Amino acid sequence: MTSFDERAREWDSDEHIATATAVAKAIRSAEKVQQRGLTNVRVADLDLLGDPGPPPRGFDLVISQLMLHHVSDTAALLRATNEALVPGGRIAMADLDAEDGTFHDPAAEGIHHRGFPRETLRSLAADAGFEDIHLGDATAIPRNGRTYPLFLLTARKPDAGRRQGEAAQPGL
To answer: Where along the chain do its domains lie?
Structure first.
């Protein structure tokens, strides 16, 4: 068995770069970052389930790619992600649609889910407090003569002063 650190040394293959590029394109089409001219973006490497908590200001956007199936308690991760966001903050998470377990090598470590049924994730996101939940196609990964589809989950933490499910004011 190889560890994540060992696999990371060779991770930037043409296949992985193509997948990351396709997911980034799907995220950009779901958000209006370029249209709004946002330039104050920072990246933080944070273990939401292991660290004591996010920085005091919180995050405007949390992005992940092919990470959810490596987390045993997806519900807890989504709750922690919601708590780490500022009011009105968003998530964009790409991962595997439900699959039969052939995506990973049988000896791979840290695989807790064989992808996800989209409606299961929709329910988990809603239970974690998210709204405006959308699940769509991100891309697909060809591997060993098969194609494995990836979804893109986007959602928003309710704004401060609004209750979950209450409509936002037009133009905001």
So the answer is: 4-156
- Give the dihedral sign, CA 17/20/24/25: positive
Give the tens place of pLDDT for each residue, 118-147: 999 999 999 999 999 999 999 999 998 999
CATH number of 4-156: 3.40.50.150
Sign of the dihedral defined by the CA atoms of residues 119, 164, 64, 134, in that order:
positive
What is the C-alpha to C-alpha distance for residues 98 and 101, in angstroms, rounded to an integer?
9
User: What is the token pair recorded at 83?
Assistant: 């708590």
What is the pTM (predicted TM-score) of this model? 0.71
Q: What is the per-residue pLDDT across 20-67, written as a single tens digit (0 to 9) for each? A: 777 777 665 675 556 767 666 555 656 667 766 556 678 888 888 899
Residues 6+ positions from 68 with CB-CB distance below 8 Å: 74, 77, 93, 95, 113, 116, 121
